[in-house]
Design goal:
This protein has 14 helices and 17 strands. The chain has 423 residues and is of the alpha/beta class. The site of pyridoxal-5'-phosphate has 15 residues, from helix 5.
């Protein structure tokens, strides 16, 4: 490793510091960011990039949105944390905003995505025993192969990814993993009377933007309802306008409870990248399993998070981010499809709204060096666009939803040029 004191550029110094003092639990693309505004980020050398990761879809409203900056500054000098030992003047307003926006009776505020997942798992188990009548400690939760729901011990216990899971046992029992996008597998799993919930991402983001068949989610909801099993949609990455809908798992405006998830998990863009804010949404008959003392978090629902999240949701509506994601998503996929036709190693494009992925065939250069999604991301970086591979052959493209058509078309040119250089 390069000595920190002798590293010559700001970039090298920052990377050497992280390498020396930080745990090596990430493999970042070599670029050191220090500023962001809207769809752009700048590195420590002053170079500007389009951000096509958006912090894994947390920055849907764009970096440092001026309205979010303003409420955050204001709230920072007013009141930041009360804990839930007392009522706060903002929490009820925030809860009402979330419930009316997404169409649920109640919400439970937490901080990170993984905490929202843990909350939903606890809720499902308690509902199993108190409402469904499953014998004590027998409740089972069905999840999907290739899922990503976070990093806690319980959450990795239901992962099928060896990198996420191996070495962290003993694992939490009570999960069954079935194939994603397979209604037959779900039907079979639901035959077990001890199943209380099905937890699923409407599109598997971390797996590489794996989009199921159009009828998979609606039919899975119907199968769960028929068996009195909670359908729990992890919309932490797909929710809040990202896929051209407010929620990916249900068309906007659908009010029929029979066609809606029983439980929805939100995080990331709920605070527009300002602050960790997450939430679990459900109707009263499910949410009322929580009583005082059964669940909580010191920071969950704090005034700062509540204020930022109210504003973040308001921006989504005012700036019509659902419509923008839907419209620009079509343009993006249409243009990338031309590259798929042109180069045989560009295998495909898939996605919904502005959550998309480019699939490539990993190859070797004439000198034997690898040409995988990682090397293509390095080239995209050099050309002014930041994206991250998932696996060796998939690149996710998820810009902030405030991107304009003109900006998107410029990005499509950057991608086309990079693909040409990579050929
Ligand atoms: C679908 C999904 N669920 C849960 C999580 C975990 O969220 P967090 O990293 O905030 O714990 C993520 C994070 O990428 C996610 O994509």
């Amino acid at each position: 490793m390069q000595e920190i004191t002798t590293a010559s550029t700001k970039t090298q110094r920052a990377m050497a510091m992280e390498d020396r003092y930080g745990a090596h639990n990430y493999h970042p693309l070599p670029v050191v960011l220090e500023r962001g505004e809207g769809v752009f980020v700048w590195d420590v050398e002053g170079k500007r990039f389009y951000d096509f990761l958006s912090a894994y879809s947390a920055v849907n409203q764009g970096h440092c949105h001026p309205r979010l900056v303003k409420v955050m500054q204001d709230q920072a000098t007013t009141l930041t944390l009360t804990s839930r030992a007392f009522y706060s003047s903002l929490l009820g307003n925030y809860e009402k905003e979330v419930c009316t926006t997404f169409g649920y009776d109640k919400m439970l505020p937490m901080n990170t995505g993984a905490e929202a997942v843990e909350t939903a798992l606890k809720m499902a188990r308690k509902w199993a025993y108190e409402k469904k009548g499953i014998p004590a400690d027998q409740a089972k939760i069905v999840v999907c192969d290739g899922n990503f729901h976070g990093r806690t011990i319980t959450v990795v216990s239901m992962s099928s990814d060896p990198e996420s899971r191996d070495g962290f046992g003993p694992y939490t029992p009570g999960f069954e993993i079935i194939a994603f996008d397979d209604l037959g597998a779900l039907e079979k799993a639901l035959a077990d009377k001890n199943v209380c919930a099905f937890l699923v991402e409407p599109i598997q983001g971390e797996r590489g933007v794996y989009v199921p068949a159009d009828d998979y989610i609606p039919k899975a909801i119907a199968l769960c309802k028929a068996k009195n099993v909670l359908f729990m949609a992890d919309e932490i990455q797909t929710g809040i306008a990202r896929t051209g809908r407010l929620l990916c798992s249900v068309p906007d405006g659908e009010t029929d409870k029979a066609r809606r998830p029983d439980v929805v998990l939100l995080a990331k863009a709920l605070s527009g990248g300002m602050y960790p804010v997450s939430a679990v949404l459900a109707n009263d008959e499910v949410m009322d399993v929580f009583t005082p003392g059964t669940h909580g978090s010191t920071y969950g629902g704090n005034p700062m998070g509540a204020r930022v999240a109210i504003e973040a949701l308001s921006i989504v509506k005012d700036e019509k981010l659902v419509e923008n994601a839907e419209r620009l998503g079509h343009i993006f996929r249409e243009e990338i499809a031309k590259l798929v036709d042109q180069y045989d190693w560009v295998r495909g494009v898939r996605g919904r709204g502005l959550l998309n992925a480019l699939l490539i065939e990993p190859r070797e250069a004439s000198d034997g060096s690898p040409k995988t999604a990682w090397e293509l991301c390095l080239l995209l970086r050099d050309n002014g666009l930041l994206a991250k591979p998932t696996h060796g052959d998939i690149i996710r493209f998820a810009p902030p939803l405030v991107i304009t058509e003109e900006q998107l078309r410029e990005c499509l040119r950057i991608i086309a040029v990079s693909v040409e250089q990579f050929a």
